[in-house]
Amino acid sequence: MNRINRDTIVAIILLLLVGFFAYSSFAIKTPVFERLAPGQMGPGFWPRIILTGLAIMGLIYLFQSIVNPPPPGEKRGGLIGWYRHYKNPIWCFAVFAAFLTIIPVLGMLIAGLIFVFSLMTMLGPKDGLAVKRHVLTTFGTVGGMWFIFACLLEVQLPKGQLTSVFDEWLLVNICGIVSSIGELFADAGPSCSALMPSV
């Protein structure tokens, strides 16, 4: 209960890193954000949102490591035993590294689709029905996030060297349809209010 264990040390290191990155987020400077309009989000807004979540999870991890410390280390049979024990985290890091590598080539959308589908297929069941669920979940989550950031929030997501034409086509067509629908509702608003009887 009172001894310092490996989880407590890891939690403290993670919290220190989160604090350092949170402090650094206030110094993000880009020419686009030199003059912000009142109420406009700065470049450090989203990093701080993510870091807040990481800080909360780090505090929970620290609390758990103190209240319920891990059992003493056990022998896992050398390098092969170590790999078998940590196989899933190792492959998660490997797939994430591959995702970061292919973003400049395939763009955020396609790289994200490959990343999420690969992780779900690698960690989850692999029968035909499960793979169909993985495809639907992948397109729903990644496509939904792309739509929110690219179309609704108008965030400039990375385009790929090989897929820049496709990325631009998606932006023009899908976001253009959303913009047209928004303009229709905006134009219909005053005409509808004019038709309503005055009290």
Helices and strands, with pairings:
Layout: H1 6-25, H2 45-67, H3 78-85, H4 87-123, H5 128-152, H6 164-195
Helix pairs in contact: 1-2, 4-5, 5-6
Task: Describe this structure in a few short sentences.
The protein has helices at 6-25, 45-67, 78-85, 87-123, 128-152, 164-195. The chain is an all-alpha fold and 199 residues long.
Any descriptors?
about 200 residues; mainly alpha; 2 domains; 6 helices; about 0% strand; globular
Portion of residues in beta strands equals under 5%
How many separate structural domains? 2
Order of helix and strand elements from N to C terminus: HHHHHH
What class would the helix/strand composition place it in? mainly alpha
Q: Between the first and last Cα atoms, what is the distance in angstroms? A: 71 Å
pLDDT < 50 runs, ≥5 residues:
none
Residue share in helix:
over 70%
Write up this protein.
- The protein is mainly α and 199 residues long.
- It folds into two domains: 1-71; 84-165, no CATH class.
- It has six helices and no strands.
- The chain has helices spanning 6-25, 45-67, 78-85, 87-123, 128-152, 164-195.
- Helix 1 (6-25) packs antiparallel against helix 2 (45-67).
- The protein is globular and about 65 Å long.
- The relative contact order is 0.07.
- The mean pLDDT is 81.
